[in-house]
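Deviations from the work plan: none for this task. Representative record:
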Amino acid sequence: MTDTDEVTQVGTLQEVLAAVSDPVRLEMVRRMYAEGGPAPCAQLYDGVSKSTASHHFKILREAGVTDRSVIGGQTHQRLRLDDVEAEYPGVLSSILAARPAR
Amino acid sequence: MTDTDEVTQVGTLQEVLAAVSDPVRLEMVRRMYAEGGPAPCAQLYDGVSKSTASHHFKILREAGVTDRSVIGGQTHQRLRLDDVEAEYPGVLSSILAARPAR
DNA sequence: ACCTCGGTTTGATAATCATCGAACCGAGTC
DNA sequence: GACTCGGTTCGATGATTATCAAACCGAGGT
């Protein structure tokens, strides 16, 4: 069973940039991207508490960067790469392509 | 007479993203880009005080996104587009290409 | 009915950050 | 020297924001 939330618009460029400018959230985005599809929340972060993670998921969702869907009773997060690319071509993809380490 | 500050490294991806995620700073970056070269501080912002602007310039500089140089006694800011592109290809350019309004 | 499991919401706290005015500084100019 | 002009630095203040623990909630399982 797949139950998807109402799909919202991609946010402003500022919102998107602010969303990914947080290290915890960028890591989440990277992992969702690596996953290639809806991923259960648990494996998208570590180092922060459940509630903090949920807070970050919300910000990503409100910026239109991610989706939430319930698959088999479990909440999953999904990167809306295509939607963001359609709105701001190259922005998210180039960020994902950047070498992460420094 | 051109007097340029010591050139620093481009900062981490996080630093760059955080730098441009502020509306005032993104506008500064856009104007510098439009200028195509070193631009006097004054015409890179409006709506904030001199000291606030100076603060934002500093953050952009520390992120390695901009340069400071003194031309004929006047301080100028310059977008280090090539340097940032070399480090994180496509990131800054796609942000600049994004349609600003919403 | 009870319990666990995954996730969200609610306060609350602490830290970060944008903002300003005022003082300061260096280079010109008068 | 005195004065402006463009810019920076210094505190200080207020607003955001990241963080957590605790309470809560819905879906399954037993």
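The CA atoms of residues 15 and 21 of chain A lie 10 Å apart.
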